[in-house]
Amino acid sequence: xxxxxxxxxxxxxxxxxxxxxxxPSPLAAVAAAAAAALVAALAVLVVRHDRQAPALLGxxxxxxxxxxxxxxxxxxxxxxxxxxxxxxxFTLTDQEGRSLPLSSFRGKVVVLEAMDPHCSDICPLVSxxxxxxxxxxxxxxxxxxxAALNVNQYVSSVxxxxxxxxxxxxxxxxxxxxxxxxxxxxxAAWAAYRIQVEAPNPAADVVHTSIIYFIDPSGTERYVASxxxxxxxxxxxxxxxxxxxDWGRGIAITAGQLAS
Length: 260
What we know:
The chain has 6 helices and 12 strands.
């Protein structure tokens, strides 16, 4: 089983490097601050996406967003087009023990997320959004694959992937794949997709980049989105049903547009 990492990552979404300008003029400083705020609002490679971030966008609509997708939902998702680049190849094992290469899904849209099978925070919310998206796809549903890369090297067996999938209703999706493998293969996949993972030991909480990739039927990356989460006073994760429904609709519209 292999994971293919692309030779260069300059064209991939990533946080802007921090640079200190040399003695900027007041006007340049104001312009730079405004530009930095917009970049921060549109950033998709985040570990914990704050629900307040979309408010920074106001009525701004990123160019290249599917026309059918309402601006409010697009901004809520942090949806952003990316350079048309072939998605990094991998061959990993899903929750049914099938060893599959990413290329086996050519001809279909792939909606790919980073998930922790031991997660009780943002991952179950994204799982519910995937289920809603599948229902919203309607006749386009057979053209879309929902998949996840395991980000927990300590909880990585096929049985772990199957349990998470069943517990979160993902086994109801006809084309669902929760991919796992040995630690070296997983790390290679994380690196290829710019997924940062912090898991210092088996007892520690896994903190990871939460990002959804939309890969078109030719195997080309087209969009990324940044999942969000809120927390109740007791620390449990939460999103209002309407927000989850909006995300499901947004994922379905974006994937359906690529499938058409």
